[in-house]
Amino acid sequence: MARFIVSRVCQGLLTLFLVSILTFFLINLAPGGPSAIMNFESTAEQREALTKQLGLDKPVVQRYGEWLGGLLRGDLGLSLDSQQPVASLLGERLPNTVILAAATLTFTLLIGIPLGVLAAVKRGGAIDRLITFTSTFGMAIPEFWLGILFIIVFAVILQIFPSSGMVTAGSEFAIADLAHHIVLPMLTLSILMLPNIIRFTRSAMVDVIGLDFIRTARAKGLGSFRVFFRHALRNALIPIAAIIGLIIPILLGGSVVVENVFGWPGMGRLAVQAATNRDYTVVMGVTMLVGSIVIITNLLTDLLYSVLDPRIRYE
């Protein structure tokens, strides 16, 4: 197990290194520059002085080496746009994305797994077809369109939920206020994630339901709830854990579209702002953070397999 973990960590570090090279050279060699330099009100002398101040007059290979050296020291540099430490910006935005991601994942699992089990139990019936059709339809809905639709219906027409933000402007932080603001972005993300959970749960349950130990449990007179949710679902958790492992990085990386539609101050919104302003250091910081989350999540998912199924061992 220890050898497996060390091997995966080394592979993850190599992957991050390659991602950093690709991202750094792509954004630095692209035409244009940071918004501060491209300010049309600045004179040519001012632009040149600012270019030297930010170190953008150096060769791109040298700039990458300096950036990588700072990263190894735990320094992600300063934002070219706001002149704030990138680490501070990420530290401010990451918890907001984690809150939205955790709420979305919890809601999705509470709804998606029971629906997937129900579709498997009623396989071939009207309920199964309805759930399958609905989940397929959910996969085809554009997230920006769904978010705007929710805002029009629930924020503008019905005025039940706020249209944007994380808390009410000018008020003190309160859990109830946060919960009120999180409903619409959470529902938007959940509807997009639910089809994957439902379809994977149904597929895994269909494979397990036909096994001998399930037929034996039913022959012993055990109730349907105990058979399907305690015995069948427990043995179907590995493929379900796999799809959860794929969903978590997407949520923690921040849904760019959803966070921007609802004005949620998370990682996705920060990434869009940084890309728009050509804020290279922030783009690199977001990329490395999201890449680290993906690698850690994949490692934890692999380790979870051995917990769910004792037969799986990593040597």
What structural keywords apply?
315 residues, mainly alpha, MetI-like fold, 2 domains, 74% helix, 0% strand, BPD_transp_1_N, ABC transporter permease
Shape: globular
> Unreliable runs, pLDDT <50, ≥5 residues?
none
Helix-residue proportion: over 70%
Number of separate strands: 0
Strand content: under 5%
Protein model, in words:
There is one protein chain. This protein has 315 residues and is mainly α. The protein folds into two domains: 71 residues, no CATH class; 215 residues, MetI-like fold (Orthogonal Bundle), CATH 1.10.3720. The chain contains 13 helices and no strands. Helix 4 runs antiparallel to helix 10, helix 7 crosses helix 9 and helix 10 packs antiparallel against helix 13. The longest helix has 36 residues. It starts with a helix and ends in a 7-residue tail after the last helix. The relative contact order is 0.15. Pfam families: BPD_transp_1 (PF00528), BPD_transp_1_N (PF19300). It is a multi-pass membrane protein.
Topology of helices and strands:
Elements: H1 2-29, H2 44-53, H3 60-72, H4 86-121, H5 126-139, H6 143-157, H7 175-209, H8 212-219, H9 224-235, H10 237-252, H11 256-261, H12 267-276, H13 280-308
Helix pairs in contact: 1-13, 4-5, 4-7, 4-10, 4-13, 5-7, 6-7, 7-9, 7-10, 10-13, 12-13
